[in-house]
Specification:
The protein is mostly helical. It has 4 helices and no strands. The chain is 75% helix and 0% strand.
């Protein structure tokens, strides 16, 4: 397995894990919706950097998470 394949696999798992950690544990922000946005942004950045899934598909995450 190449380095890039390992990076993609790690990013694929790390994104949702960071989202769960940031979203469901006590936050340092007073507004819960702001923490949701921060958690989703962190997930998207991880997937963009590692290219775990194609970038256009990653950009659709807010449409799936926010409604």
């Amino acid at each position: 397995m190449s380095f890039f394949a390992k990076t993609k696999n790690i990013g694929l798992l790390l994104g949702p894990i960071i989202y769960i950690i940031l979203n469901f544990f006590p936050s340092f922000l007073p507004e819960p919706k702001a923490m949701l946005v921060l958690a989703l942004a962190a997930w998207m950045v991880i997937w963009w950097v590692t290219e775990a899934i194609p970038i256009p598909a990653t950009a659709l995450l807010p449409m799936v998470i926010f409604p």
